[in-house]
Amino acid sequence: MRSVLKKVNYKDIILFVLIVFLFFWGYQSWTENKQYEEYLSHDMSNELSKVVYGSQQTQSILEEVISTEKLTVEQAENLSRGYMRIVQYAQKYETVADHFLEKIDKEAFSNKTANLAADCGYYFMRLSDDLNQPISLDQTEIEKYKTLKKFSDAWYQTAQVKLQKKSHSTLKESGISSDLWIEYLLALQNDTVEIAKKHMPEHFDEENIDSYLKDGSMDK
Q1: What's the number of CA atoms in the CB half-sphere (13 Å) around residue 97?
Q2: What is the pLDDT of residues 53-110, one digit of tens each?
Q3: Percent of the chain with pLDDT over 90
Q4: 176, 100 in Cβ contact below 8 A?
Q5: What's the rounded Cα separation, in Å, for the pair 11 and 13?
Q6: Is the Cβ–Cβ distance between 51 and 189 less than 8 Å?
Q7: What CA–CA distance (Å, rounded) separates 31 from 38?
Q8: What is the DSSP annotation of the chain?
Q9: How far is CA 68 from CA 34, 61, 101, 135, 138, in A?
Q10: Global pTM value
Q11: How far apart are CA 126 and CA 36, in angstroms?
Q12: What are the boundaries of each domain within the chain?
């Protein structure tokens, strides 16, 4: 009888220890995930200004280029940096939404904004390497720069409407688990697709914005 009780007690102890272990393991995992979510929320809120700045930077430079009908080496370099900044954070938001929140339908969403900005960024990077002096732009080229500016205008406006008008504390409190960042990504994509289909449909359908920029005489 005593041996039976010992055996039962031993099993109870093992079960109790296992339950305690699973409880603490689950609690620790939950705490780590919560801390990481808070870190990402804080990080993305802080980086919002960089996304807005990237759109503003390309806006301002393109407006100057269109006005003067000239492109300098410095302007090409700054355009490349501005576009690549947009790429960096658009991709980061997509990664968070896809891998951490699992709220992005990959069949319905592709990061057109990041793809287009990357093409523009690399184009102006190569152009800045080739330029030795300012180049004059013809009317065809100016129209293309006007199209690029439409993207920057739309991206900046979307950030203003979706995110910028909210306080920093509100963005952090809403956290990455909210639909705020998803709505922002989808709004960016809608802007990009709408403008591209209207102004460069044959190139955008092929996801080859670089060919649109090179088509004609933009490369001097």
Answers
A1: 22
A2: 788 899 999 999 999 999 999 999 999 999 998 888 888 777 776 666 566 666 556 7
A3: 27
A4: yes
A5: 5
A6: no
A7: 10
A8: -HHHHHHHHHHHHHHHHHHHHHHHHHHHHHHHHHHHHHHHHHHHHHHHHHHHHHHHHHHHHHHHHHHHTEE-HHHHHHHHHHHHHHHHHHHHHHHIIIIII----TTT---HHHHHHHHHHHHHHHHHHH-SS-EE--HHHHHHHHHHHHHHHHHHHHHIIIIITS-HHHHHHH-TTSSHHHHHHHHHHHHHHHHHHHH-HHHHTTT-HHHHHHSSS---
A9: 51, 11, 45, 11, 11
A10: 0.73
A11: 38
A12: 48-214
Structure tokens at 8: 């039962």
Mode of pairing for the β-strands spanning 135-136 and 70-71:
antiparallel
For the chain, give the number of residues.
Answer: 220
| pLDDT tens, position by position, 2-34 | 554 455 566 666 766 677 666 655 555 545 556
pLDDT in tens, 115-125: 889 989 999 99
Hey, what are 85's tokens?
């900044």
Residue with tokens 């102890």: 13
